[in-house]
Amino acid sequence: MNYIIKSLICAAVAGTCFLLANGCSKKTDAPGASTGGGAAATKARRIGISIPSADHGWTGGVVWWAERAKAELTAANPGLSIEIVTAKDSTEQVNQIETLLSKGIDALVVLPHEPGPLTNVCASVKENGALLVVVDRGLSRAVADIEVVGDNPGFGRVCGEQLVKALGGQGTVVVMEGVPCQVNSDRVEAFKAVMANYPNIQVLDSQPANWDTAQGLKVMEAFLQKYPKIDAVWTGDDDVLLGALKAYEESGRSDVKCFIGGGGNKLINKKVLDRDPLIPVNVTYPPKMIYAGVEEAIAALNGAAGDLPKKVVVPADVITPENAAEFYFPESIY
To answer: How would DSSP label each residue in 264-304?
Structure first.
């Protein structure tokens, strides 16, 4: 049983009952007698899932896990139906959520494209009496009943600690940052705070690669041309890491001791599983958190979510050769 399921089971049995009549559902009747997200719903419930399109590896993983949640959780909860919509941008996502509201939903699980443009329509979800679960990226103001988020400061800190371990506390490092936003800032600041504790480690450079494979290749090529010796690379993202690895392999150099990315891409996890010397570990930021968001919605609709609002933080775990099989999903797109 992985850590997400463990945390959700604990959440499902731990709090006071959540009454649907108190404003988080359009239904005025009492919730079903179920006591947890994994138990069968006794009344017809409809959940909408609104997520970005699979425009890169991680969001592709989100789409895959949303589809898996729909298949598995509707089978486990008679009377539950789930509709998934994917959007290429914030405007399309807003329109899709408005359509879901017009059809009638008991809960919305949303991973926003951007906080600002999605906040008002998400507030409308609450105004229409539906439960609101926000996953990964927050909104401009606190309107969610439940938040399911990754531990971004923990992600940066754990990546830093693993890089220090791989280098034995000394060497040179280059960093590839993500898209300028709070998620990126939380990760990079935590990573650099770890580096600051090791005076024998020098961060040569830190440049944005926008969580994109092509940008990872381009930035790594520039780093290789600029610096004659690099001991380690932190890409901050597995999609970027794939591009950085390609640039390094094509360069013919052999100075880099390790690359550390993060996220849980199956290609990187397989390298860890196979004990690739360049990829000693990976760090989780699982797209499966969308599945966790749906489980939280089911628990709340069944009256077993505990006190609301609530926040569920998915920890950043280290993937090693010993446990990599637990995180390796070869059938997933990510």
So the answer is: --HHHHHHHHTT-TT---EEB--TTHHHHHHHHHHHHHTT-
CA distance 103 to 142: 25
* pLDDT at position 43: 75
> Residue 149's closest CA among 176, 112, 96?
112
Q: Does domain 152-283 have CATH number 3.40.50.2300?
A: yes
Residue with tokens 């360049």: 278
SS3 label, residue 209: coil
Q: Which fold has domain 3-144+287-318?
A: Rossmann fold (3.40.50)
Cβ pair 209, 178 in contact under 8 A: yes
State percent of the chain over pLDDT 90: 79
Which residue type sits at 258? C
List beta partners, residue 174.
205, 233
CB distance 66 to 54 below 8 Å = no
pTM: 0.79
Task: State the pLDDT at residue 57.
Answer: 84
Q: Residue 142, class by beta-carbon neighbours within 10 Å (0-12 exposed, 13-18 middle, 19+ buried)?
A: exposed
CB atoms within 10 A of CB 180: 10
Q: Where are the domains of the chain?
A: 3-144+287-318, 152-283
